[in-house]
């Protein structure tokens, strides 16, 4: 048996807005085509060719960069464990695009540990706005000095920031 530990300098990105949690969630759902993404996973699993995968993804994303995979609403289950408190709305979305992911995974399959990326949408105290939080993809996916891997991950950084900026802008 051999054990190794690879240090990571993960960077946490936080965008804050005065927009309500509900408004940010609505905008995010539209940006991700959440409704259109509903059957993506079973269709993706059933695909047999690159062309089928490409057509499926492009059919859902259109001119968007990402699609929706999964949602966890932490406040809902925390309310069950601690009904004496009101917990701020807190959702974690798993999002992505396999066409972007494959560009990264071609250079280092270990980046797949952090693919697809996740984003947290968090209601600020006293409903004064919303924060959107995520790990900067290049800070958790680039484990080598491969410039192609770095470029692909930094491209993902830019696409994610562009989408989040659009969602949280007043």
Automatic annotation (TrEMBL):
InterPro entries: DUF302 (IPR005180), TT1751-like_sf (IPR035923). Residues 88-134 form the DUF302 domain. It comes from the Eukaryota. It holds the Pfam family DUF302. This is DUF302 domain-containing protein. It comes from Collybia nuda. The lineage of its organism: Eukaryota, Fungi, Dikarya, Basidiomycota, Agaricomycotina.
């Amino acid at each position: 048996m051999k054990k190794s530990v690879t240090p990571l300098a993960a960077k946490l990105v936080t965008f804050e807005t005065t927009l309500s949690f509900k408004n940010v969630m609505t905008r995010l759902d539209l940006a991700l085509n959440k409704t259109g993404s509903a059957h993506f996973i079973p269709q993706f699993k059933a695909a047999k060719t690159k062309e089928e995968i490409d057509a499926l993804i492009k059919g859902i994303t259109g001119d968007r960069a990402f699609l929706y995979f999964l949602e966890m609403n932490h406040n809902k289950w925390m309310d069950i464990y601690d009904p004496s408190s009101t917990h701020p709305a807190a959702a974690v979305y798993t999002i992505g695009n396999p066409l972007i992911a494959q560009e990264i995974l071609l250079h280092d399959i270990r980046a797949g540990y952090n693919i697809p990326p996740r984003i947290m949408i968090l209601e600020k105290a006293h409903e004064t706005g919303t924060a959107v939080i995520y790990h900067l993809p290049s800070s958790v996916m680039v484990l080598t000095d491969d410039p192609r891997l770095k470029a692909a991950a930094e491209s993902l950084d830019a696409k994610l920031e562009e989408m989040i900026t659009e969602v949280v802008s007043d």
